[in-house]
Each structure stands twice: as C-alpha cells, then as structure tokens.
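Input sequence (127 aa), recorded before submission:
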Amino acid sequence: QVQLVESGGGLVQAGGSLRLSCAASERTFSSYVMGWFRQAPGNEREFVCAIRWSDLSTYYADSVKGRFTISRDNAKNTVYLQMNSLKPDDTAVYYCAAQTGGYGSSWYVYPSLYDYWGQGTQVTVSS
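Predicted structure, token format:
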C-alpha cells in the first residue's frame, strides 16, 4: 500500500508562488504516473497536471499551462508542483495521486483511474 503525503500549501497573494511536495512511502514509482488534482468547494475534483515517472513526460490542464510545473526527485521519491503567478481561481485543496494501471496519456485526467491518494493540502490565493 503506497502512502502519499502532501505538504507546502498555504496562503499567498495573487501573483505569488508556492511549491507543493508529495512524498511517497516506498520506491515504487518506476511504472507510475503521478498526478496533481485540485478541488474547490462545491466543485468536482479536477486534473491539474501529471508526470510519467519512466520518461518524465508531463501533461498540464490548459488553466495552469505556463504557470505550473510538475517535477520529480527520484532519490527522494517525491513529486513537486511549482505554482507561479497564482490566481484566486487556483484556491483549492490540492491532492497528489498515483496511477498504476499503465493507461495512455489521454486517461491521466480521470481521478477515478488513480489508485492512491494523499490527504490533500489547502492552497488559498487572496486577491
């Protein structure tokens, strides 16, 4: 059972930056896709970005493209989400997740296809 622990959330002004981290309990990422999702009150959980561990391919939602960057540190078994130029619309609980099913990239946006989830970290962007 893989455990994922997010950290790095907080309160930031619009235009500011935050870096989220997602640490895994074991080194099992070689065949995984790691994703970041977010959920604002009253909204469904939405895809933010993903990284394929094996070849570092990355995928982003249009709403964050050019502002957010996903990366990973293999030695630390950690995935990062660097968020720049934050907007109030980015306010949400952010979750990291691991997908192990070997799906194609078009399936990375579906939260139901992820097998493991972190507990979430709150990001609040003030205007």
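Checked by second reader. The chain has a mean pLDDT of 93.
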